[in-house]
Each structure stands twice: as C-alpha cells, then as structure tokens.
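Action item from last meeting closed. Structure (137 res):
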C-alpha cells in the first residue's frame, strides 16, 4: 500500500471513530480562532518542521479555514469530537523551500489551552511527529 493511501486510510478511520464517539456528546470545545501550530518529525536522517498559523472556524463538529506557514499556504478542514480535533491542511509552496502536500494533525485540547498530538505530512512519507498549537486570537 502506498504511503499516501495509508495516510488517507488512517485519517478516514480516525475521522469515522471521532464521528461515532461524538454521537450524543454536547461538551465539544470551540476551536474557532487563530491558532499557532508547531511540530517536528524526526525519522532516521530526515527532519521536518511545521509552523503555520491557522484561522479556523467551527460549525458543529466541522472545521474549516486556512493556514499560512513560512513556506506554504492553503485550505484547512477537519472534524471535532469533544476536545479532540483532526485538521488537514492542504499546503502549496509559496517559495523555493516549500513543499506541496497534506499535513494531518490529530490532537486534543488540554486544560492548559494547548492542543497536543501527532501529525504527518504526505510530503514526508509515512513518518509521524508531534505538534502543539496555541490559540493566539
């Protein structure tokens, strides 16, 4: 199975699990706002970072918005279940350092106001790293 197919498959399973577990849940966090994401992937001799600022809007359990990083920009979409969130950022390069791909963030909003979790990017193959995000507005 190709890396991109595996990522899509894993993301679809996670989204389905979020949907199933959200039935009857009324205590969802509100992720609407501007968030500063920071993450790192270390896999063998590969090292990747991500640091977009994302403007997200939540409507029910759906997330939409845009993200802009130092080397890329693009649309974001996702799903929420309580304090858990899945966001996919479809990034296109804005300079020669940027890569085209889809960054997928799976995380949970902690009591300290920080989202923490794991992320992967189609531009980085099947490697998985950690991220955090803080609300700035």
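Sequence:
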């Amino acid at each position: 199975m190709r890396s991109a197919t595996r990522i899509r498959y894993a993301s679809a399973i996670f989204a389905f699990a979020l949907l199933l577990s959200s039935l009857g849940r009324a205590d969802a966090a509100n992720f609407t706002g501007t968030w500063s994401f920071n993450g790192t992937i270390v896999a063998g001799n590969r090292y990747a970072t991500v640091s977009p600022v994302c403007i997200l809007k939540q409507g029910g359990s759906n997330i939409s918005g845009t993200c802009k990083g130092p080397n890329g920009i693009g649309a974001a979409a996702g799903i929420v279940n309580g304090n858990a969130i899945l966001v996919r950022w479809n990034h296109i390069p804005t300079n020669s350092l940027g890569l085209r791909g889809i960054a997928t963030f799976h995380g949970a909003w902690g009591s300290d106001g920080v989202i923490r979790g794991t992320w992967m990017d189609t531009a980085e193959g099947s490697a998985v790293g950690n991220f955090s995000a803080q609300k700035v507005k």
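Note appended to the action item: The two ends are 40 Å apart (CA to CA).
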